[in-house]
Specification:
By secondary structure, the protein is mainly beta. The chain contains 3 helices and 44 strands. The strands form 7 sheets. Strands 23, 24, 25, 27, 29, 31, 33, 35, 37, 39, 42 and 44 form a 12-stranded mixed sheet that branches. A 9-stranded parallel sheet has the order 1-2-4-6-9-12-14-16-17, with helices on one face. Strands 3, 5, 7, 8, 10, 11, 13 and 15 form an 8-stranded parallel sheet that branches. A hairpin with a 2-residue loop joins strand 19 and strand 20. The two termini are about 30 Å apart.
Length: about 600
């Protein structure tokens, strides 16, 4: 999603939204090498106490590097440091800067942390309420003339905010997660001036007041609590959210599931006294509401001494040696070039990135592969395709993986993929999920439509995500602009809660997207061999601005079988730049004209 202000009319807003429009550096030192310490009372170590020590063993723990900036309440010049990094990162959409701000537990007064590109902010407590900012964590769109559709790659986690005005502004687009946050007031998801906005994702958060999406086209909120929800434009999806609006798609377009079938929150760094640990939240079934607020969170904990703390410049061979030694990986902010895949073979391995650590494959290799083992956790990093085509960029499990991981699934969370934009990049299939029971919880897999190295063949990428494994669940799936299918699903019993897609803007003509006798490749294709599949709140948009006469037969394609079910589907032609003939298979009215009005299907078949 990334349109300039002149592209299409602003989506319609509710009467409430229209009324609102009218009415309205001295950083703490990172810890040196750390020793194992006992877990919190509710936790137990997830792996043996420490890797075997030998003369050549890589060290665990260590400092977090220059781009992790740690504050405590007594730190001088916090606002100045926040402002300095924001000025640098505000419009650096394809820059090389990567930063993480970490706030030690305590209370901070009078701060406004404005977040630019590749900037993460997080508290270091076990609960968001351990770290309170009497102030704001702000994302706005002044850098882009009030258009928030390109406010990508930034995050906020594990903080309590008491906003100065009573409402915090978080006007983001894709790849900008808002996790484990407590807002003691309201949350505004639109930019100042209520211009275009295309987001977004909230999980495990409590917003005491109302959430106002206003111009936000779509949003997914999971396992949270809200004091109210103001309006909807095209597609607002909720699962396990206390206070969510009732199911009412398509008018207004709310898709509401009482619970989330399976979820496990993202690992996070925290302080136990003066020593860093990584908390690993436990799996929940039929989850509803936040995981925190009633004592110590449920899960396990690892000391930083069990992590290899990686810095940019480290080789893939060293990362693999650390994994072989029994260490986990903590990727500090920066850009990493890899000449061989990172290979995760051990059950329970954690690969956690800070500050949008970015992994680039050299010479067409795959960035990361996992074995078919229990409980791998991949979280918080960006994969940037290289100029030599990679067959795949991320593989969860080997081909043919079949082990049952229902008790301890692999999770892929805030792992983002980009092909082009920062430079020429190519990949045949970005993400392949082979392991059963994998949970893909919030991803944006994006073939770039703007930036450097962009063109129909320049950043060729035929397929976004391919799911081969059975029993895979996707919660918060954003996949856009691939040359052919954006999502292909071959596994049985797959489920998706919320999907956002745009077809590739830059198709040169109808012939370029012709799929045999079918006009265009579906955004979301369920294989003919699948007998059971279910999806809720799925949307596909087209904006064929290079060849506006292109016709896309449908957004969704699936076998017509009783066990294959969809709820609350929509397709949208953005400003009449291309049109859809149907929503799913041969069902659903065509889009037409330039009015940017969705065509919807409430239930299929």
């Amino acid at each position: 999603m990334s349109r300039t202000p002149t592209d299409v009319p602003e989506p319609g807003r509710s009467t409430v939204a229209r009324r609102t429009v009218l009415g309205a550096m001295a950083a703490g030192a990172a810890a040196p090498g750390l020793l194992a310490l006992s877990s919190p009372a509710s936790a137990s170590p997830a792996v043996p106490a420490s890797p075997a020590q030998q003369p050549s063993a890589l060290p665990g723990g260590g400092d977090l590097g220059p781009n992790v900036i740690v504050f405590d309440p007594s730190t001088a010049g916090i606002q100045a440091k926040l402002d300095q990094i924001f000025r640098q990162q505000e419009s650096a959409q394809f820059g090389t800067g990567r930063y993480a701000f970490l706030f030690k537990p305590g209370t901070y007064n009078g701060l406004n942390a404005q977040l630019g590109f590749y900037t993460s902010i997080a508290g270091l407590g076990l609960s968001p309420d351990d770290t309170t900012i009497n102030g704001d964590v702000t994302v706005d769109a002044g850098w882009f003339n009030g258009n928030a559709t390109q406010n990508f790659w930034r995050s906020a986690e594990n903080l309590a905010l008491a906003p100065v005005s009573g409402t915090n502004r978080w006007a983001v687009a894709q790849a900008a997660p808002f996790r484990r946050m407590h807002i003691k007031g309201g949350l505004n998801l639109a930019p100042d001036g209520y211009g275009w906005a295309s987001g977004g994702y909230i999980a495990d958060s409590r917003i005491d007041g109302s959430v106002g999406p206003y111009s936000q086209q779509q949003w997914y909120t999971r396992d949270s609590s809200v004091g109210g929800w103001v309006n909807a434009v095209w597609n607002m999806v909720f699962s396990g959210v206390q206070g969510a609006p009732a199911q009412s798609f398509p008018n207004p377009p709310y898709t509401t599931l009482d619970t989330t079938p399976v979820s496990r929150e993202k690992p996070f760094l925290y302080l136990n006294g003066s020593e860093y640990r990584v908390f690993l939240p436990e799996k929940r079934t039929n989850a509803r509401g936040v995981t925190w607020g009633n004592g110590t969170p449920r899960g396990s904990s690892l000391p930083l001494s069990q992590f290899y703390v990686a810095k940019p410049g480290v080789t893939a061979a060293t990362l693999n040696a650390a994994l072989t030694q029994g260490l986990h990986l903590l990727l500090t902010p920066g850009i990493y070039h890899l000449d061989q895949p990172i290979q995760v073979n051990r059950a329970g391995t954690v690969v956690l990135g800070l500050g949008y650590a970015t992994l680039i494959p050299d010479n067409g290799v795959t960035v990361l592969r996992t074995a078919d083992v229990d409980g791998v956790r991949l979280a918080g990093f960006l994969i940037d395709a290289g100029p030599v085509n990679s067959a795949t960029l991320l593989e969860v499990g080997p081909a043919g993986a079949s082990a049952d991981h229902s008790a301890n699934p692999t999770t892929v969370q805030d792992v983002f993929v980009r092909i082009g934009g920062a430079g020429a990049g190519k990949a045949t299939t970005s993400m392949v999920i082979n392991s059963r029971h994998t949970i893909v919880d919030h991803t944006w897999v994006w073939r770039a439509d703007h930036g450097t190295g962009v063109g129909w063949e320049t950043n060729r990428a035929d397929y976004g995500i391919r799911v081969n494994g059975d029993d895979v669940l996707a919660t918060g799936l954003f996949v856009e602009h691939f040359n052919k299918y954006d999502v292909q699903w071959y596994g049985q019993r797959g489920r998706t809660i919320f999907f956002q897609n745009e077809k590739a803007y830059d198709a040169p003509n109808q012939a370029a997207i012709q799929n045999g006798s079918v006009k265009g490749y579906a955004a979301y294709k369920v294989a003919d061999s699948v007998t059971t599949h279910e999806g809720w709140g799925l949307g596909s948009y087209c904006y064929y601005n290079v060849a506006p006469t292109i016709v896309q037969h449908h957004g969704f394609e699936a076998p017509n079988k009783p066990g294959v079910k969809f709820h609350d589907l929509l397709v949208v032609s953005l400003g009449g730049q291309g049109q859809y003939e149907h929503v799913v298979n041969e069902t659903g009215a065509p889009t037409s004209g330039t009015s940017t009005v969705p065509s919807t299907v409430v239930s299929y078949p």
